[in-house]
Structures are given as structure tokens and as C-alpha cells.
Write a structure and sequence with these properties.
The complex is a heterodimer of chains A (214) and B (234). Chain A has 214 residues and is mainly alpha-helical. In chain A, 73% of the residues lie in helices and 0% in strands. Chain A folds into 2 domains: 1-112, RNA polymerase sigma factor, region 2, helix turn helix motif (Rna Polymerase Sigma Factor, Chain: A, Orthogonal Bundle); 158-214, Arc Repressor Mutant, subunit A (Orthogonal Bundle). In chain A, helix 3 packs antiparallel against helix 4 and helix 8 packs antiparallel against helix 9. The longest helix of chain B is centred in the middle third of the chain and has 39 residues, at 97-135. Chain B has a 3-stranded antiparallel beta sheet. Chain B has 234 residues and is mainly alpha-helical. Chain B has helices spanning 3-14, 20-32, 34-53, 60-79, 83-92, 97-135, 155-165, 168-174, 179-188, 225-232; strands spanning 196-202, 205-211, 218-224. Chain B contains 10 helices and 3 strands, in the order αααααααααβββα. Classes of the chains: A mainly alpha (214), B mainly alpha (234).
Chain lengths: 214, 234
Amino acid sequence: MPGEVAEIALMTEGLRLSEPSGHAADHTAAAIIQRAKHGDTGAFEEIVDCYQRKVMTTAWRMLGNQEDARDASQEVFLRAYRYLGSFKLEQDFGGWLYRIIVNVCRDQARKRGSSQRFASFEGEREAGTFQSLASSEDVEANAIRSQQRALIAEALATLSTRERMALVLRDLEGLTTEEVADTLGSTQTTVRSQISSARAKIKQYRDRVVKRRG
Amino acid sequence: MNCKNVEALMPLYAGGDTDPRTTGELQSHLNTCGQCALLADEYDASRNWLSGGAAPDLDEALLAELKRGVMRELQTASSRPGWFEMMRAAVAQVALRPVAVAVLLMAVIGTLSLWFLVPRRDSQAPQQLTEDVHEQPRQTPTGSELPGSVTAPGRFAQVGNHRKARNSTRVKRTEKVDRQDLTKIATAIPEPQPQSALAVDSGGMLRIEMQTADPSIRIIWFSPRQIENQETNP
């Protein structure tokens, strides 16, 4: 059974489950943002529609569980609405939003301190991830995916907050080193050092998992 | 470039974060070193493993719940008035209008009374001082009046005078005081003397009295005669 799990897990590798759906909306984003800046809540609702998947995914990756990610995402949008007046249309809205996500996740991580909760397989089952499944094959596939997600969440939990944020932005969100440094308010050298350390730790963790599976 | 350097740079090389020159050197080393090539493959697999499984399942219900929560919070925040709006609404209420008018009226009356009293107090102050001198003769701590003096021209008397200067009835009475009498009284006030001691023989003991600068305070003490002798005839 562990061998089968590993095999199916390898089959699902490289599968991007949730890319942000805002590519098409980027063209009209400026007009929508302009309306939202003038207090149009309908326009802001459209912004939420465009970016909520991206915000939620990033927050989940940074914080490691769904509950904290949902709270953080809500706070991200509320802050975005509050500070939308200071946003300049020449700026990249996605980058601006990333900075808010990073700040909110930092605050959240600081608040919970040592009681950091990363998703576990049991936790995901309790959260009802498997409720909408139709067949037993789906159940198995979803269980494998959830188990892998839990392992990755555990791997990310071995990193410090700064390392995790740098790695998530660089390797999972696909930002350049320069963009990561800009988002984190750090230098590129520092970011490279954090990413290097984080990648080494993730590899060590994965090596242990692979060794355990035989 | 040796294997140790390659191992240190491998995490950055795996993600394409090394500069072109270093990348070229690393690639040429990896072509010749099987162990380092294996390490590079492991890093690639690790990165794929991470990016493949790190994306969570986001169902529509979860996203809809998030959006509802955000919009609800925004509506609550926008419907919550600021403190200025709350104050303006409270003043606009009919019940609070008489209170606002009364407060305004009191402020006007207070300002006017201050305007009229302040210059008058300055012009009346010297007369007021002499009136108090007349009213309060100097007394000992036990209550008996001391001869040859009327009052204590000290700090406490002046404070009392300034307080009374604010009272308009007192101001009227002060005007009736005869200036000539006041001059006499003022000259009768003894100047504060420097400390002076008086020794009186009182039986077996020597009584020593000392008048301080404050006329209402006199220090009296008794001492054996021998000390007095020693002091006078060293």
C-alpha cells in the first residue's frame, strides 16, 4: 500500500491545481480598481472574484492550514479595501496584493506564535475535504492527494517564517528573486540565502519521507 | 570548481538562481561528476514534489464563503459612523438643543465676566492689600494680639489679598477706607528684623528668646547658666 501511495503521488506531481484565474481580468483590472477606489463596492466585489483564489492559495501555502488561510484572506481583502486609496494605477496590483498577503500572514504567524498549526491528513478529513466525492476511486485519489499535501505542509513547517515566505513566493508563486525581495522588503542576497536554505531543508525532509517508504 | 562548492550552490542552481558564469561552471562539473549530477536530480525531484502538492483544493463553497465574509465586513464598516458623525447627529437631536444653547450661554457669560474683572483687579490691588492690613491685626499663635503691630506682611497675607481681590463686594468696601489712616497703619508695620536674641535670667535657668524674620514666630528656650557663662566668658 505505501508503494501504491507513492506511485500515485508521483503521478500527481507537477499538477497545478489552482492557478489564479485573473489573467483575463487583468486587462480590465485598472478600470475596476479605479471604480473601487471611488468607493464602488460592486467593483471591489469583482476584484475579490478575480483574486480570491490566488490570495487563498498563497495564504494557505504560507500558513499551512485552511482555517488560518481563510481568516488571513478575509483580512487581506479588508486591508486592500482600506488602503486602496493609496494604490497608484501605474503599480502592479498583484505585487501590491502580495505585499498585503505577506504582511497579514506575518501578523497571523506572529499571533499564533509557537502554536503553529499545519494541516494533517486527519485534519483535512475532519474539515470535510472528502465530502463531495462520488466514487471509491475518487476517495482513494483524494486521500493520496490530501496525504501528500499534509506531508508538504509538514515540510514547510520545518522552515522559519521568512524562509517559508521566500520559498512560497519564489518556487510556488513563481515570482523572480527581485520581486520576492521587493515583496518581502528585503535584499536579493538575503532572499537567495533564505531560498537556498529552504530548498535544502525541503530536500532533506523529502529524502526522509522517501527513505521511510522504502 | 570542486564537489563541495557544487553542493553548496546546488539549491540555488536547481531553481535557476545562479548567475550565468556560475551556472556554466556548475554544468561543466555536473557533466563530469556523477555524484553531483545525482544530487542535482534529487533537488529537481524535491522542487517538483513541493510544487506538485502544495496547491490546496479550493472548492467554490469555500470561496463563496470567503467573499460573503469580506462583503459583510465591508458593509458593516461602511454603515458604522465615525465619531464626528455621531456627535453631529447627537447635537442635531431636538432634546439636546436646549443643553447646547445653555452651554453656549454660560461660555459667553463667563468670557464677559472675565473681560470686566481682570483689569479692575489690577487697579484695586494696592488698596485691597491695605484694607486687609486694617482688618487683620497681627496675632500670636495663641490668639492674643501683639503690641505695636497690625498684621504680618508675609506671603500668606498676600495670597489672601489676591483671593479677596476677585470678590466684587470687597472691592466696593475697599473704596471707603481712609487713605490717611492706611498710610499710618502701613508705617506702623515693623520691618522684618534679622534674628535677635534676648537672654533673661529665670531662676536657675537662662531663658533665651529669638525673634525670627517672621514676626509671628519667636523661638524660646531655656539653658543652664553655666553654658551662658562659657559663651560670654570663653
